[in-house]
Amino acid sequence: MSMRKRDSNFLLEFIDRIAPYKWSIFFITLLGMSLSALNLYFKPSVYEAKAVIKVKTQEGKGENSNTIDNLFVSGSGEYRTRFGNSPRKLHLH
To answer: Torsion over CA of 34, 39, 40 and 44, rounded to 10 degrees?
Structure first.
């Protein structure tokens, strides 16, 4: 007896054995899917994002270079704009 014929006989025998329970299997599966959908519907939505900011340093360009040291004013949470030295508050959460 070839391997393919033995596999097909096993599959047909398995289907014949579970055929009387097909409606039970269907309704249990439907119940599980419905409970999962309800659970997901009533859970609060949680969104999360992560970002990495890379700053290129340019050495030897003087005081006006675009380095991280020149962007922040003495660790106070303020930053200098590129168009002037007026400090503005930086809000990081």
So the answer is: 160
Write the pLDDT tens digit of every residue in 33-80: 999 999 999 999 888 888 888 887 776 555 555 555 555 544 555 555
Same domain, residue pair 55 and 81:
yes
Question: With bands split at pLDDT 50, 70 and 90, how would you rate the model's confidence at 90?
Answer: low
Asked if residue 90 and residue 64 are part of one domain, the reply reads: yes
Same domain, 19 and 59: no
DSSP assignment of 49-70: ----------TTS-TTS--HHH
How many domains, the chain?
Answer: 2
